[in-house]
Amino acid sequence: MAVVVETKNLLETVVASTVAGVGITVVFSIAIWGVARFADLSRNERPLAAGAAATLAALAGLGTLAAVAFGIVVMSSK
Amino acid sequence: MSSDVILVIVVGTALAFDFTNGFHDTANVVATSISTGAARPQVAIGVASLLNFVGAFISISVAATVANDVVNSAVVTPTVVFAGLIGAIAWNLITWSFGLPSSSSHALIGGVVGSAVAAAGFDAVLADGLVGKVLIPAVIAPVLAFLVAGVAIGLVYRIVGKQRPGTVTRGFRYGQIISSSMLALAHGTNDAQKTMGIITLALVANGTLGADADPPLWVIVTSATAIALGTYSGGWRIIRTTGTRIIKMDAAQGFSAQGAGAAVILASTHFGFPLSTTHVINGGVMGAGAGKRVSAVRWGVAGNIVTAWLLTLPAAAAIGALAYGLTAIFGSGALGPVLVTLMSLSLIVAVFARRSREGGPVPVS
């Protein structure tokens, strides 16, 4: 049965899907959180905190794009 | 000469299946984006068809599985492949007619397995490949997408739950442009390859290609084009079911469902598992609904979809076996495939005419 079921490949599929699916969604959510906080903090005239939120949003946004690009590169490398 | 005529019919039928695959599965890719207002329908479908085309060129792992690991190519003839395709197309049209997002992939594999069994008995089926590369991933993939989308949406609500809804919704609508693009790309990589695999199988059976050969470039290009054209034609009946009838979705749920679906399909494609993109995406949609509130999922609709999923392999196999039997009545020449093709076209026209007269989709709940 171990030969029939490609255990290693299936396990890697499960791990990769979970890390990519949950990871990208969480990182993108952090980007949105950063944008929302930036808007609120700017309105409340707290420029330092707003700047930090904007930086976090930018980093998370870039992280999302990098993860997507990495996924495509991995896919096309086989 | 006769075998070449059959081969031409098989390739034409395979590309017709590929077109119905794109047509049938457009909903999987664009429904959540349309239902949350992230993209206008025509734009979403146009981008999806383009990325389906591009995705078809990314990998050939799934094509290799379909061509080499499901049925024994030594006992398969072009007529067997033809009958399998008829089984798959017929089942796709039946489920489309009822607005049910069933699996084109399982219909294709079921149809070919059914016709191969009718032609050469159960020895024609490669049980290891069918179980290990098709059936087990078929069960795991939608459950995985359900869980990934459910966990992801739970975390999303924790992270952005206290922020202004307008900003959050706008953000996730932008995000859905990325997630639906990834999903379209993933769909192209997995689904277009199944047709490539089937055409390659027919070419091997006809002696045009050697065993274990990769799909030729013309097969890749025509398969990519057929699925892209099918996607562009759109399947509005199923878009409505996937986009609005399983759950009432917000943009964050749409993003989570699409992200989970794309991740599962791309990872599976990498290892050559020809899974059902339909099952995966609907699993993701249900997971994103249940992650917010279990009662948010219309379980009656979900149950009907699951029933269609369970029926797909055996039903397509039965139709494939029937199509092979019908073709074989007229001998091993081209007459059988020609007559069955004409009968199938008549049935397709009848189904479209009936649905056109009836108007909107048939309720599935």
Global outline of chain B: elongated
Overall pLDDT of chain B, averaged?
A: 83
Distance between the termini of chain A: 26 Å
For the report, how would you describe the main beta sheet of chain A? none
| Topology order of chain B in helix (H) and strand (E) letters | HHHHHHHHHHHHH
Residues in β-strands, percent of chain A: under 5%
- Unreliable stretches of chain A (pLDDT < 50, length at least 5) are none
Describe this structure in words.
The complex is a heterodimer of chains A (78) and B (365). With 78 residues, chain A is mainly α. Chain A has a domain at 25-76. Chain A has helices at 7-43, 47-76. The mean pLDDT of chain A is 88. By secondary structure, chain B is mainly alpha-helical. Chain B has one domain. Chain B is built from 13 helices and no strands. Chain B has helices at residues 2-35, 41-55, 61-68, 78-97, 104-120, 127-160, 165-205, 217-233, 236-245, 251-270, 277-292, 299-329, 335-358. The termini of chain B are far apart. Mean pLDDT of chain B is 83; it is low at 360-365.
Summarize the structure.
Helix content of chain A is 86%, strand content 0%.
Write the layout of secondary structure elements.
The complex is a heterodimer of chains A (78) and B (365).
Chain A: H1 7-43, H2 47-76
Helix pairs in contact in A: 1-2
Chain B: H1 2-35, H2 41-55, H3 61-68, H4 78-97, H5 104-120, H6 127-160, H7 165-205, H8 217-233, H9 236-245, H10 251-270, H11 277-292, H12 299-329, H13 335-358
